[in-house]
Amino acid sequence: MGLDAVLLNTAGGITGGDAFRFTGHAAVGTTLTLTTQACERAYKAQPGPYGQVSNHLSVEAGARLNWLPQETILFDGSALDRRLLVEMAPDASALVVEPLIFGRAAMGETLTDIRLLDRIELRRGNTPLFLDATRFAGDLHAHLAKPHIAEGAGAMALIVFASSTAEGQIDPVRRMLPDAAGASLIQDDLLVIRVLAENSFALRRTLMPVLRRLNNDTLPRCWMI
């Protein structure tokens, strides 16, 4: 049995002092796909508190979770503290993506002053499986322009695929990726993909076929609008 759910932020975005929390649960033998209605936006914040986003997802035996939110757009002056925790049973599986856009390129925006804390953690049977943590404060535009950092990229994404089928996906996925992306099989059941892109359009052009491949050739309808 599968269920698709769409998350909606009725506030229209996130700014300093906001606190959003979501808990999702995939029961035994089910498939749960979670996405967002549109891109999330982290707006300029006053000095002091971060905007906080905490997502806690659990996946029971034989179940599958697809965490497929659309992009989060960072605005100059934003302060975002985002945390994602996925707890899986030993034989559960998960497909997780977190795309970030560094300002709206079409509007000529650059991020010269932001604060970002981002933590993505997967656990299997109470054992740590994957942890990715980012901490940045200051001029992100100048940081990303460095040749050995991001060569001026305006967007990035992390994909984590925890599944018994992960090993069979590494070679096909690598053939789909552009030069500014890479895929690693950390262990037989854990595939990690990182993507840098010039802008949001280029990022989607890479993400969508990869996500379709890892999700039985389907994507939430919201991604098509």
Count the helices. How many? Answer: 3
Percent range for helical residues?
Answer: 10-25%
Number of domains: 1
**Assembly type of the shown chains?**
single chain
Encode the helix/strand succession as letters. EEEEEEEEEEEHEHEEH
> What's the count of strands?
14
| Radius of gyration computed on alpha carbons | 17 Å
What are the low-pLDDT stretches, counting only 5+ consecutive residues below 50? none
Q: How would you describe the shape?
A: globular
Characterize the biggest β-sheet: 9 strands, mixed
Residue fraction in strands = over 45%
**Could you say which structural class the secondary elements and strand pairing correspond to?**
mainly beta
Mean pLDDT across residues: 96
Distance between the termini: 25 Å
Model description:
- The chain is mainly beta and 225 residues long.
- It has one domain (19-224).
- Helix content is 12%, strand content 47%.
- The chain has three helices and 14 strands.
- Strands 1, 3, 4, 6, 7, 9, 12, 13 and 14 form a nine-stranded mixed β-sheet that branches. It has a five-stranded mixed β-sheet with strand order 2-5-8-10-11, with no helix packed on it.
- The longest helix is centred in the C-terminal third of the chain and has 15 residues, at 200-214.
Sum this structure up briefly:
This protein has helices at 140-145, 170-176, 200-214; strands at 2-7, 19-26, 31-36, 40-42, 51-59, 64-67, 72-74, 79-88, 93-102, 114-124, 127-138, 155-162, 181-187, 190-197.
Layout of helices and strands:
Layout: E1 2-7, E2 19-26, E3 31-36, E4 40-42, E5 51-59, E6 64-67, E7 72-74, E8 79-88, E9 93-102, E10 114-124, E11 127-138, H1 140-145, E12 155-162, H2 170-176, E13 181-187, E14 190-197, H3 200-214
Parallel strand pairs: 1-3, 2-5, 3-6, 4-7, 5-8, 6-9, 7-9, 8-10
Antiparallel strand pairs: 9-12, 10-11, 12-14, 13-14
